[in-house]
Amino acid sequence: MKKIKYCCRNFRHGSKTVFKSLKQEFPDLKQKKKDCLGNCKLCAKQCMVLIGKTEVVVAPSADALYAKLKHRIG
Questions:
Q1: In Å, how far from its chain's centre is CA 74?
Q2: Mind listing the pLDDT tens digit for each residue in 43-65?
């Protein structure tokens, strides 16, 4: 899987727990925290991450985002 990028401003929606959980469960997975990913309309409303350079994954809650990412990882 490509690198997962997190917007630090989105951490208030719960993506920080997703970051920490994935880091513990998959220590070899490439993850990066960025100040802003430039998807502010999505980021302001729900949990989101950027996979690679273009693929945006969104979910209404941190648990749903974690489930989506875990399913993608395998």
A1: 16
A2: 999 999 999 999 999 999 999 99
